[in-house]
Known about the structure:
Blueprint: H1 3-11, H2 15-31, E1 37-39, H3 45-57, E2 67-72, E3 82-86, E4 89-93, E5 100-103, E6 107-116, E7 122-131, E8 136-139, H4 146-162, H5 166-171
Antiparallel strand pairs: 1-2, 2-3, 3-4, 4-5, 6-7, 7-8
Helix pairs in contact: 2-4
Amino acid sequence: MGELExxxxxxxxxxxxxxxxxxxxxYCNSMKVRSLKWYFPTGSKWAMRKINKFMAFFxxxxxxxxxxxxxxxxxxxxxxxxxxxxxxxxxxxxxxxKLYYIAYxxxxxxxxxxxxxxxxxxxxxxxxxxxxxxxxxxxxxxxxRKLFFAEYINDVAEYLRxxxxxxxVEEE
Length: 172
């Protein structure tokens, strides 16, 4: 798919897709660790190749216009690990772990659970995504700033629950 063809498909995005992109834009610069790089489907041909490579490597059945952004978390930018943000969820591939998917529609909230020792020092800080069915999933957090990631997930969950995203309404 060429860049012009992709941009035409972006113009035909639904209100939901556009709002999901606005929520992502609110957090994308704060969420990643400084050394990592975002690749956007509206960017260069190189960016589109990176996104397509990740989707092909894991046989992710999406079209490029479903993608909001890709965060390559590999040291040498091979595109074989990272986070693929889409209009409906996030595909996450961590080092030494399987690819998994967080579907926005199934998310109740994201939460950071911190544990302190008797002296009051932080011992651990873990990021969990809680699902509507009562389960929870530990999400890796060494490639992202977990506070911003949790806020992003919570904004998406609230938007899907209420149909309202405050920042999107304020712009209009």
